[in-house]
Amino acid sequence: MDLDALDRKLNSAFPGKVVRKDLLHQIKGGENVPSYVLEYLLGRYCASDHEEEVQLGIAAVKDTLRKNYFRQDEANKAKALVERHGHHRFIDRIEVRFAPSEMKYWAAMDNFGFQRIHIPDEFHRRYDRLLEGGIWAIVDLEYRTSEEAGRNASPFHVRDLKPIQLARFDFEEFCEGRRAFTTAEWIDVLLRSLGLEPDRFDARRKVLLLTRLLAMVEKNYNFIELGPRGTGKSYAYSEFTPYAILLSGGKASTANLFYNNARRQVGLVGHWDVVAFDEVGGMKVTDPDTIQIMKDYMANGRFSRGITQVHANASMVFIGNLNHPVETLVSNSAMDLFQPLPKEFDLALMDRFHFYLPGWEVPKSSHALLTDHYGFVTDYLAEALRTLRKDNRFDALNAEFRLGAHVEGRDANSIRRTVSGLLKLFHPHGEWTREELRGYLELAMESRRRVKEQLKKRGAFEFYRTSFSYIDETDGRETTVGVPEQGGQGAIAQDALAPGAAYTATVDEESRVSLLRIEVTCAAGTGKLRIPSGMPRGIKESLNRAWICLQSIKDRGGLTATLATKDFAAEAVDLSGGGAEAECGVAFFIAIMSALQNRSIAGGTVVLGDLSIQGNIKAPVSIAEPLQVALDNGALRALVPVANKKQVALLPEEVVEKLDIAFYGDLDRAVMKGLVG
After folding, report:
1. Which residues, at least 6 apart from 649, have a Cβ–Cβ distance to it below 8 Å?
2. 177 Cβ neighbours under 8 A, 6+ residues apart
3. 8-state DSSP, 180
């Protein structure tokens, strides 16, 4: 192996704390053992750069596993070995529990398959984690006959125990070592510690991959990653740390996750730093209380069960697969990026996600992406991440940046916590630049906005404030942050469109808002209107009413002869994915007149209002929602029925300040105020 500059620097700054990751890949495929266990053995037998010694060490690791590691289906064989030889050494996860009725501590080993193993008090007193969910260890068991075992008749006794997990961690030493690296180098070190080669990724993908560690450094952090299959979503939670548990599909119960009333025991959230749900789409919620308790817990890290109030620090991670291309999910009004989630996950629960990792940007796992260089021993880095959970950098933004008007309470909390987590990951020593902080802020805002955009697509107007921005405290400049998959912010062009095009916005009874672009083209014909067969029913009915209205007034407007020689084709493009039943008659009428007269509608203009077949103006029930969405998407001007004038007093200040609102009372005034040139 040829060491590069980063390998040499890492070995110098963290001697004895690193391991060659290619050796792990060599063994991992054939052994169903956590990575941190394999790395412990590699560090013990392969601490050399000489290839011959390394190969001998690998052979020793394999031999050790063959003799001392047993699968669960080999439990009977393991017990027989202890009985036959009087003792045997095992590599297994061991946990200790106290039985009050017996005033006795019992050990249990996962793969050994026995729950009542005698253990001397010295071990659980020396290693607290034996009582806190268990640890992986090298355990020497001995067999004693029933006479030797005494009244607590169990023949198996722990003779010696050596934890595989790190026994001591020096955080100050870790921070001092970090100072030897630039931020870019440190990010590469973390990627190599995950087993990936940083040269295979661009800067954005490097950071996105490492956000999978956010839940390990932030308490009560709610993280979701949805994307294609085979991108390594679950690896970090199943292999990278002994402090996370990965639940694969199946039932989610209140007793298992949160609190068991019968046993008076806290569930998984009280025993693990991270509780991750793999294949979340297959999750079955059998207890109706589970979702409500989950919402309470995700909101503030506590919940009530009976008369008991429980506080816990576990972060929650939700992993799942998208079954459609992201472009389809974004553009289709009936679908969204939360599509795989169980039906029990309501808007309130999804609003508690702090970060949505766009899994479609992560490449599929392949051997070509794996590194053959040095990275941290997994257990060492896991201890560092766990220690960082105690740190709090929630206020890191305060002196440099201020969050914009659309960033509301839950959004601000999510963004600040994500920034805090990124600072812990990349700057554990507490030193960073202003521009680095800006980059973390923009990623945090993007990831939270991705959550909010899906809620907006599903829900009521309360989620429509998604124009996330921040203000630089030094110069007062405001910057808006978008989400890449939606192609930027402004769906409304601020330059004049081609003749025949107009924007409209509408809100339905369920407070769903749609932003549409109406497009009308005319060609030689016999006076017919063509509407595509796939157009939503509500829009089609609105266009037909406007067309009938046009036919009824064509004589008065001197349009009879012109309309008789033209055919019109109408299209409505849903720009927001809101899915509302749009009432867009006035915008359609103005678009027809624009096409006939070859005149454009003023740039950045959105037209509100519908028509009856007799030409009467039908004012929208509310203008607040459509105007807010129009402003968020770049509108400069709005044509609004005069009947809605009283509602202006109820509009948000920024809407009144930034939008030029013009009122019309009839079709003639609407056309006159809408067209230019």
Report:
1. none
2. 13, 14
3. T
What's the CA gap between 500 and 568, in Å, rounded? 10
Residue 18 CB-density burial (10 A; 0-12 exposed, 13-18 middle, 19+ buried): buried
Which residues lie below 8 Å from residue 566, measured CB to CB, with a gap of 6+?
522, 523, 524, 525, 527, 596
Quick one: which of 366, 315, 321, 360 has its CA closest to 339? 321
Strand 660-664 and strand 135-143: the pairing is unpaired
Angle, helices 35-45/378-388, rounded to nearest 10 degrees = 130
- Give the Cα separation of 161 and 92 in Å (integer): 11
Q: What are phi and psi of 148, to 5 degrees?
A: -70, -35
Average pLDDT over residues 283-306: 87
Q: Residue range 554-564: average pLDDT?
A: 86
Choice between 507 and 578, residue whose per-residue pLDDT is larger: 507
What is 77-134 written as a DSSP string? HHHHHHHHHSEEEEEEEEEEEEETTTTEEEEEETTTTEEEEE--HHHHHH-GGGGTT-
Q: Are 252 and 285 contacting, i.e. CB atoms less than 8 angstroms apart? A: yes
Angle, CA of 468, 469 and 475, to the nearest 5°: 175
Name the β-bridge partners of 515: 505
For residue 59, CA distances in Å to 21, 67, 136, 152, 371 come to 16, 12, 22, 41, 21
Helices 667-674 and 585-597: crossing angle in degrees, nearest 10, is: 60
The residues, ordered by sequence, that sit 6+ positions from 128 with a Cβ below 8 Å of its Cβ are none
Distance CA(268)–CA(476), nearest Å, equals: 46
Residues contacting 5, CB < 8 A, separation 6+: none
Instruction: Check if the beta carbon of residue 667 is closer than 8 Å to that of residue 546.
Output: no
- Given this model, what pLDDT does residue 537 score? 84
CA distance 57 to 166: 21
Cα-flanking dihedrals φ and ψ of residue 51, to 5°?
A: -60, -40
Q: How far apart are CA 161 and CA 573, in angstroms?
A: 68
Strand 478-480 versus strand 617-618 pairing type: unpaired
> Do residues 61 and 45 touch, judged by C-beta distance below 8 A?
yes
Kindly state the tokens that stand for 233.
């979503």
Positive/negative CA dihedral, 540, 545, 548, 549: negative
Helix, strand or coil, per DSSP, at residue 39: helix
With the C-alpha atoms ordered 502, 505, 508, 512, is the resulting torsion angle positive or negative?
positive
Give the closest residue to 542 by CA, choosing from 589, 500, 499: 589
Neighbours of 77 (CB within 10 A): 10
Q: Averaged over 223-242, what is the pLDDT?
A: 89
Helices 35-45, 51-68: inter-axial angle, 10-degree rounding:
130
Q: Is the pLDDT of residue 677 over 70?
A: no
Exposure string of 398-426, with b = 16+ CB inside 10 Å and e = fewer, is eeebebbebbeebbebbbbbbbbbbbbbb
**Alpha-carbon gap, residue 500 to 597, rounded angstroms:** 9
End-to-end CA distance of the chain: 72
* Residue 188: count of CB within 10 angstroms of its CB: 23
How many CB atoms within 10 Å of residue 304? 12
Encoded tokens for 169: 């961690």
Note whether 255 and 261 are within 8 A (CB).
yes
3-state secondary structure 218-241: CCCCEEEEEECCCCCCCHHHHCCC
- Identify the pLDDT of residue 483: 86
> What does pLDDT average to over the chain?
88
Task: Report the predicted TM-score, pTM, of the whole model to 2 decimal places.
Answer: 0.74
